[in-house]
């Protein structure tokens, strides 16, 4: 017997995919690191800084980018974010890190594989090409430069498929309405928070990854809290663990491993 909801009304929104994303969470074995002699530490850090600099400019792929964060709390010490044009490039970047000496002092505590996704609840009319400025804006979102801001917050989420509240059986029109309201809340944080939504159905354990970037961590809390009261999240949002961290430059890894969080400016610490 067919479901009461016809495929036409519960249709999936059109999605457009961009770069693949890997969020790679690592814990440092500080005890082993401290036992390492000074010369070995220096060599490992030099190698690591070079590796991270090559990652940032995606020297291992035709395009992409990476960023590194010092994570607060017990869930990880470092989060590496890699954006690359294919899953193969992501696997290659992981393999390359494992070849470094620093990798010997890290344990992977979590990771998330997804692909940048734009879901289009209001697509162009069929056969109508978007104007060139919209096309350019689209490409910037599908292949984004990682925002040069100090903080990032990452968490995976899904939409509920309960017996009563089921996002996936809602009519398209209702989901469009809810996503509009969701987008309006998001827009209120323009200039404060940049979001990157990555789809992970079929790729990882949740349905989306949400990565937020900002120059102050407080708007992460404000934005996520405000969205909790909006129907799309209040009724249908299911959330995984959160990671929040401070951006490290490739050279910053040396200071970090010596026990100092680099300041906002690379030269700010005495
Ligand atoms: O892409 C767009 O800007 C159009 C509007 C929009 C869509 C379609 C949008 C805007 N989002 C969309 C899709 Mn979003 N987003 C989240 C979270 O914590 C929570 O409660 C939810 C986590 C945040 C914080 C956030 C921020 N968004 C999605 C989807 C896919 C849904 C689907 O396809 O069914 C998810 C899972 C999701 C989750 N969203 C915005 C933001 C912000 C800040 C905006 C405004 C962007 C802007 O206009 O600058």
Question: Can you describe what's shown?
Answer:
The structure is a single chain. 31% of the residues lie in helices and 28% in strands. With 270 residues, it is of the alpha+beta class. The chain has one domain (14-122, 130-257): Apc35880, domain 1 (Alpha-Beta Plaits, 2-Layer Sandwich). Strands 1-3-2-9-5-7-6-4 form an 8-stranded antiparallel β-barrel, surrounded by 4 helices. A hairpin with an 8-residue loop joins strand 6 (193-199) and strand 7. The longest helix is centred in the first third of the chain and has 19 residues, at 38-56. The termini are far apart. The model has no long low-confidence stretch (mean pLDDT 94). Ligand 76R binds at residues 13, 118-119, 121, 157, 179, 182-183, 186-187, 189-190, 193, 195, 197, 208, 210, 212, 223-224, 227-228, 233, 237.
Name a few traits of the molecule.
Alpha-Beta Plaits, 28% strand, 270 residues, 9 strands, alpha+beta
- Determine the mean pLDDT: 94
Q: What's the oligomerization state?
A: single chain
What is the element string, with H for helices and E for strands?
A: EHHEEHEHEHEEHHEEH
Helix content: 25-40%
CATH top level assignment: Alpha Beta
- In whole angstroms, the N-to-C terminal distance is 72 Å
How many structural units, i.e. domains?
1
Which structural class do the helices and strands define?
A: alpha+beta
């Amino acid at each position: 017997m067919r479901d009461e909801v016809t495929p036409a009304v519960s249709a999936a929104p059109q999605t457009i995919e961009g770069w693949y994303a890997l969020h790679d969470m690592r814990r440092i074995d500080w005890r082993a690191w401290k036992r390492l002699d000074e010369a070995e530490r220096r060599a490992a850090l030099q190698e690591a800084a070079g590796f991270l600099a090559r990652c940032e400019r995606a020297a291992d792929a035709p395009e992409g980018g990476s960023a590194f964060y010092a994570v607060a709390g017990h869930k990880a010490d470092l989060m590496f974010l890699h954006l690359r044009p294919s899953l193969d490039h992501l696997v290659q970047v992981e393999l390359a890190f494992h070849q470094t000496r620093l990798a010997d002092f890290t344990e992977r505590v979590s990771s998330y594989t997804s692909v940048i996704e734009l879901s289009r609840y209001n697509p162009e009319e069929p056969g109508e090409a978007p104007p060139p400025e919209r096309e350019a804006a689209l490409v910037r979102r599908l292949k984004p430069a990682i925002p040069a801001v100090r903080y990032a917050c990452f968490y995976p989420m899904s939409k509920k498929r309960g017996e009563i509240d089921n996002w996936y059986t809602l009519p398209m029109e209702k989901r469009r309405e809810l996503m509009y309201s969701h987008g309006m809340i998001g827009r209120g944080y323009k200039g404060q928070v940049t979001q990157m939504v990555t789809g992970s159905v079929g790729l990882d354990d949740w349905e989306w990854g949400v990565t937020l970037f900002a120059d102050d961590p407080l708007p992460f809390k404000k934005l996520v809290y405000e969205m909790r009261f909006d129907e799309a999240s209040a009724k249908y949002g299911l959330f995984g663990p959160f990671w929040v961290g401070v951006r490290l430059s490739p050279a910053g890894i040396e200071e970090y491993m010596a026990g100092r969080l680099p300041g906002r400016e690379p030269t700010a610490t005495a």
